[in-house]
Specification:
alpha/beta; 23% strand; 38% helix
Length: 116
């Protein structure tokens, strides 16, 4: 049986929408890092490999989710997302911290670790 490598790679994070946010993030039994991004955003593309790497590093301890801002305007309005990339950190359904703009892996990992 042939395996789709793109599908496997996509499994390191969950794509969240306006409809699935409550289930995937607010009701998660693990802390969640949510990356608000867009395909046309240069800094978003720059940190995407960092976010995916963190998804692997924190597998089993925290969840990483990505929200396409163009496809999910309700979430952007709900969390007042005005600039991207925007990284929000949730624990037990509550917003704990956030970063706006590109940040280093160390900075993002430290904030996620504080949510564990």
């Amino acid at each position: 049986m042939k395996t789709d490598t793109n599908a496997v790679a996509d499994k390191v994070y969950v794509e969240v929408t306006d409809d699935s946010f409550a289930t995937e993030v607010l009701n998660s039994d693990q802390p969640v890092l949510v990356d608000f991004w867009a395909s046309w955003c240069g800094p978003c593309r720059m940190i995407s490999p960092v976010v995916e790497s963190l998804a692997l590093d924190f597998a089993g301890k925290a969840k990483v989710a990505k929200v396409d801002v163009d496809a999910n305007p309700q979430l952007c309005a709900q969390f007042n997302i005005r600039s991207i990339p925007a990284l929000l950190f949730f624990k037990n359904g509550k917003l704990m911290d956030g970063i706006v703009g590109a940040a280093s892996k160390t900075v993002i990992a430290d904030k996620l670790s504080k949510c564990l």
